[in-house]
Amino acid sequence: MPETHLLPLALAMLGFVGGHFLLSYPPLRSALIARLGEKPFQAIYSTLSLAFLVWAVTAYGQAPSLTLWDLEPFGRYLALAVMPLAMILVVAGLLSRNPTAVGGERLVGSEQAVAGIVTVTRHPFLWGVGLWSLVHLLANGDAASLILFGGMAVLSFGGMAAIDHKRSVALGATWQTLAGRTSRLPFLAVLQGRTRIDWAGIGWWRPALGLAAYAVLLQVHGWLFGMAAID
């Protein structure tokens, strides 16, 4: 049955997404770090995540095409419209100091914590990945994409809530002060008057680099993924 060929993909995504949430669970994470040490734990965490991701991508390429819905051409146009913003958020998130990133808790309580892209959303990278996942899920409309991109969306949006909760528990009032000046939802803190966009901190080159990455992806999409992003 075709459904059985989706099992490797489902198992890979279960390992990738579930592994992130499981190994980030504070009691388990603390126990493993105490036993293994911080650096060995991070090495194991990263290796397992990469292995499951490679397995998922490989399984996705081998999965059968089982159409669940067809939103063409709307789905493709939606992806083309949203992906520039997604790439800007990904690039800005990766190339900015962020109190929600790994090791970023040391920034909480400093003025550097609320600067740059963090004034738009305190989870820029995860929002970029989440938007990428959702528009590709809608545009493709097949069972394998539902598993792969749906899993990535769960990890992205669920990860935001999990990170906020862990920071709140660990940092208490200091985190609450930062959360009051920022927002999980992009631009919400700005619209509510709790902060102002730090255009200078974002800079011109981060959005430019994000758009350049988007332009490159448009050109190599067919070569990398077997389907051209534009005809």
TrEMBL record:
Residues 9-228 form the NnrU domain. It holds the Pfam family NnrU. Its main location: membrane. The chain crosses the membrane at residues 6-23, 43-62, 74-95, 115-137, 143-163, 211-230. It is a multi-pass membrane protein. It comes from the Bacteria. The keyword Membrane applies. The keyword Coiled coil does not apply. It is found in: Membrane. This is Putative membrane protein. It comes from Sulfuritortus calidifontis.
